[in-house]
Structure formats: C-alpha cells, structure tokens
Write a structure and sequence with these properties.
Layout: H1 20-36, H2 44-47, H3 51-71, H4 74-97, H5 103-116, H6 119-122, H7 133-148, H8 167-180, H9 189-206, H10 212-235, H11 240-264, H12 274-290
Helix pairs in contact: 1-4, 3-4, 8-10, 9-10, 11-12
C-alpha cells in the first residue's frame, strides 16, 4: 500500500500534505549520505564502514537521546535526534548499496506496521483498542516471521528478542515476555524473599574455599541476584534501566560535590581519607535532599 493511496486505511486520518515540508531536509540528508559513501568522491572513513562497525554508534546515539530527555534539554534533544536519524540513514544507505533495502522501504515498513498495530485508530471501526490487542498483533507478526524464515510449528516464546540488548534491558524484556504467559511472581512481596535467598547464596560462595570454581559460582550467583532485582523493579512499575541510569547520575553528582569540597580545602581526592570523603558525601546527600 502506498502512503498516498487515497483508499488506504490511514487516508481519512492522516493528511500527508501537512508534512511535505519535512521531505526536503530528509532528501537532503539522504543525498549527503550518498555522497559520503560514494566510492570515488566520498569520505574515506565513511566509505569503509559496515553495518557491524556502525552499530555501536547507533546504540550510543540512542543513549544520547535518552540522556537529553533525562536532562530536559530540548535543544540538545533536537540535535541528538538528528544524530540518531543519521544512523538510520546510514544503515539504509548501506542496505541500498548491498541491494537489500532502501530508506523508502524502511519508512514504508514502519508506516505499515503502525497502521497494522492500531486497527482501533486506522481500521474501519475506530472505536478504541482492547487489552492485549497490541501484544496479540505482535505475536501474530512473530508467528508470520517465524514461518517465513522456514520455522515449523508455533513461534517460540523469546523469538524476536535481540540478544545484543544491554543486559539490564534484555533481562527486563525477557521477564516481561515470560510474565505474559503467566510465568512470574503473583506480587512483589515474595520477590523480597527470593532476593534474600539469592543474597544468601552469594554470601555463601564468597565465604567458600578459594579457586576458579569459587569465582565461577560467585559470578553466577551475582547474576542471579541482579536478575531478581530487575524482576522486583518490574513489579513496582519501575524501569530498571532508567532507575540504574538515575542512580549513576546521582553518584556522579555527589562525587563531583566531594571533589569540589576537597578542592575547597586545598586537597586532591587522592589525598583525602575515606572518612573525609564520606563526610563530604553525606553533606552532598543532605544538600540534595533539602533541595527537593
């Protein structure tokens, strides 16, 4: 279905002419990327990049977007969204060069997906969605993709979950997927007991005899503890990744205050005692709380 098809399901609600002004800069960006990748006239660095070498930058730019949102910096967010858009254009250009897909196909695919997943908005009977509708449609898509890829039978539970996600995000995604089929704690309360159990097992391994086996078991028990803590966050309605990012930011702020306090007394951090740094930390913590 073409985006400008007057008979398309989105036609009655989406006026594409209102967004024509966005087409020119997108076309310019596509032309810039084509020039950068040109084998004869392009940039030597851009010419030699691949999907694999660009992927880390794509992930980094997504986090930069998240960082701008956390700071509430809308000017920076605009710039970071542009950087992220560049990543999409970069991958699309490489896909076009290899004969796999082009930017227009990427845009068309997401248009069709959004329309398909919102039948309550773009369908003939636009009367609001029902609980579970989004996931049911996604499951049907996964099943169709599974069959297209030559798989037989029903798609597996974790089909479509990217293994390359950051570990905390992946853990949350896996546990959400499992919860949809009922494999989860009924409430947050029993998770505290599970945390105590995992913490006890980790302590037992720490106190065990030394050796490579001890290190392996400590590694596993620590991972188990983190996994359960992610589950607790989900039950409390907390995004574990966002919570950890916020804790990281808090740590940086307070350590910067400790550093400033040390400098005010004419000392480097390396010259401070642990008690001295702790006192400055407590002061920074108290100042943050009084400013809430």
């Amino acid at each position: 279905m073409r985006q400008d098809d007057p008979e398309g399901p989105a036609a009655q609600d989406v006026t594409l002419n209102e967004n024509v002004s966005a087409a020119a800069p997108i076309m310019r960006l596509l032309a810039i990327m084509a020039r950068l990748r040109d084998p004869k006239r392009g940039c030597p660095w851009d010419q030699k990049q691949t999907f694999a070498t660009i992927a880390p930058y794509t992930i980094e730019e997504a986090y930069e977007v998240a960082g701008a949102i956390e700071r509430g910096d809308m000017d920076d967010l605009k710039d970071e969204l542009g950087d992220l858009l560049l990543q999409v254009v970069y991958h699309a250009r490489m896909g076009e060069e290899a004969g796999h897909f082009a930017f227009a196909g990427v845009a068309e695919a997401i248009c069709e997906k959004m329309i398909r997943r919102h039948p309550h908005v773009f369908g003939e009977a636009a009367a609001g969605g029902h609980p579970g509708q989004w996931e049911a449609i996604k499951q049907a898509e996964r099943q169709a993709k599974h069959a297209k890829g030559g798989g037989s039978g029903k798609a597996r539970l974790f089909d479509g979950v990217p293994a390359g996600l950051p570990a905390v995000i992946l853990s949350a995604k896996l546990q959400r997927r499992a919860a949809r089929i009922g494999f989860d704690w009924p409430s947050a309360e029993p998770i505290f007991d599970k945390i105590e159990e995992e913490l006890g097992e980790l302590r037992a391994e720490i106190g065990g005899p030394p050796g490579a086996e001890k290190e392996r078991r400590q590694f596993e028990e620590f991972g188990d503890l983190m996994f359960v803590i992610v589950n607790l966050g989900l039950h409390l309605g907390i995004d574990p990744e966002a919570a950890l990012r916020a804790a990281n930011g808090k740590f940086v702020r307070r350590m910067e205050a400790v550093e400033a306090g040390a400098a005010a007394s004419g000392k480097e951090l390396s010259e401070m005692t642990l008690d001295g740094m702790q006192a400055l930390w407590d002061g920074a913590k108290a100042a943050e709380r009084s400013g809430r």
